[in-house]
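re: ur question from earlier - yeah i can do the single chain one, its not a big deal. heres the input i used so u can compare w yours
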Amino acid sequence: MSKNKLTLYLEKPNARFLEYLKNFAKIANSLLLEIDPFGKQFIAKTFTEAKDSVRFSAVTFDDCGMNVLNHDQADEVKEYENYRIKLGVLSKLSSVIKIIDRFESDNKSYNIIINYDFKKDERTGEITECIAENIQFTSDVLSMKLDGFRPTEFRYLSDDTFNNKVAKIDDPIEFELTSECISNIIKTSEIVKVDDNKDMLVFYNKGKKIYVKDHIIREGDKKEKKELPENFSYLIGELSEAPGEAIHLPIFRKCFICMLDKTNENYTVLIGNSVSGVPDRLVLKSNDTETKIVISTVNE
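and the output i got, formated as tokens:
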């Protein structure tokens, strides 16, 4: 057993941590979860399979009803206080959710114990990573364990890269998008959908007003593709002033649903020039949690 152990205690279980994980499970059954024992929060970022959309979200231990019961560390890591424990949940996120749901349903206090080890730089001897080896869940009546976590199987996206490249928007145009409006976009587009792998939603403006419409291209011969008229156009917001250039941002409908279906959060949507110099993504920043979603536009 590892000499390094973080024990979290839930005196009054709530569903916040479960909801946090379920939002990622909509995207994939794998997740690289980072646990910050000193900042007392969970941080995670995950991609769609095509890597055309990414979700970043953080939630505090306090919000999840968790307290640090104890943090046992080997002597050599006690001074290394700025690390995050990386927990690579490979193809078993649904199992983690089921275990937590099982303990939450008992409505009793329980512990989550993360046993972890660390890696050092071979040249300098400095710690480079802290890797979770297994998780134990224990209460007065039940004990369960999961192991075999493998963070090395994941492509790591640092906070700096996410904030300063992936989600970076210069001089953004902003508008608000409520959870109700998101639900209405999905429900309306469901009525007229044609092909889940090809259907697009287009965000566009008429003066100060922001709309979304469906977008279908029918495959013709190799020389031309015929764009069909939209089947719906939906007014979703209004800008403080009309933009200098027209907005036209197509995204895959399935990405929008994957990232936002059944959300209860309200978002600020950012549109503007990205690091590439052209508008090529939608950035949605939650007004309710530490969540950011980036959806790449489609090259028509």
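The longest helix spans residues 179-192. not sure if urs matches, ping me
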